[in-house]
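Example 5.3 — Ig-like domain-containing protein
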Amino acid sequence: MSCFFIFILVISSAVCQPWRQFSLKTGASVTIPCHYDRKYIQHKKYWCYDAHSAYSFCTIQAYANDTQGKVTVTDYPAESLFTVTMNNLQTGNTGSYWCVVEIGGIWDPDVKEDLNITVKSDPDLSVMESRVSGEEGGNITVQCFYSAAYQNTQKQWCRFKDGRCNKVERTATSQNSTVHISDDGRRSFSVQMSGLKKSDAGWYWCSAGDLQVPVHISVHDPPPVVTTAVTTAVTTTTHHVSTYT
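Solution (predicted structure tokens):
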């Protein structure tokens, strides 16, 4: 683990919920979305490695809109989130991390969310594609794979921005698309979203038990309808008739 900056931070938890848990494949890349309140749009954001040496210590990997080594952090103020991309993951990247909004005051705590990442050759949860694109009005399918250890855990498909989840074997119709999840019982489950709308675009996650894996959905315009004009030519034939008297 490369160390770029070490700061003593006073940190408060952003939300009262269990840590997000990720099981990732050695050598792979991952992009993780981190949400923040809109009141923090102008604040700095960063990705931090929790060294566990003391409560207030962490190693800052990169600030928003910057790349340091294998880590890139990108802020999306219009969506109230920033993403963290980690490339070429290795077992040494296993550990606890924080998504952090910097508040700036000595006595004002920064706002954080806790995450835990485990990197190994055979992850317990993965997806066939982490970025899926479909056309408006069409369908997409996301395939999620889980290990035998998660065979009997609950499988879900959740939307990142509001935390709403669809559970396996249950079809739900919302103001957006229709979502259906089915588990084949052979270590994979599929998510089908039909009747896509532009408002369906954004970050989601597949989950099995306490694990999740992020997936980004893009929705584009359907191809234009091409019309062919048909021109019919009409030929007029004139006959001249002579009259003999």
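Remark. Confidence is low (pLDDT under 50) at residues 1-17.
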